[in-house]
Design brief:
Length: about 150
């Protein structure tokens, strides 16, 4: 039994589309399966449709994240990781993939992904919104750690 379950509505756009699923109890990410074969040439970025739509409750998002195994074994990356699917989005869900292998010799850097393979992960996250408050100086609020962008020397 999962610690908390939030109902997310799922619309299959094709009968053979598989529901995203958790492989183990307690996993944060649900595996997403590829509904069709995909070919991504060296240096190309491609939106890969997943064959389903979702209705996410207000106050939540689905984050699209890479699978570590696919990232380790290939030069395929989720280009906008983590991608966000907002609660108001009702179109087909897709993953933006990028083949970052630029050493294409005789087409060997082309990546082929077979139908049914696990392509990415979806993580359901609760969303908090912020309310901006304009102040004269943020230096008077809390403590300034003293820099950023490599300021610690590491």
């Amino acid at each position: 039994m999962r610690l908390a379950e939030v109902k997310v509505y799922f619309e299959k756009l094709r009968d053979d589309v598989k529901l995203p699923d958790y492989k183990n109890d307690g996993d944060a990410g649900m595996d997403v399966y590829l509904p069709d074969h995909v070919k991504i040439d060296s240096g190309m970025t491609k939106l890969v449709p997943l064959g389903f739509k979702v209705a996410i409750p207000k106050g939540y998002e689905l984050q699209v994240r890479p699978r570590s195994g696919l990232s380790l074994k290939t030069k395929l990356r989720v280009a906008n990781s983590p991608g966000t699917i907002d609660s108001g989005y009702r179109d087909e869900v897709g993953v933006i993939l990028e083949n970052i292998d630029f050493d294409d010799v005789d087409g060997r850097a082309t990546i082929f992904i077979e139908r049914g393979e696990r392509l990415a992960q979806l993580v359901l996250k609760q969303v908090e919104t912020c309310k901006w408050e304009i102040v004269d100086s943020v230096n008077e609020i809390g403590e300034d750690r003293g820099g950023g962008f490599g300021s610690t020397g590491k």
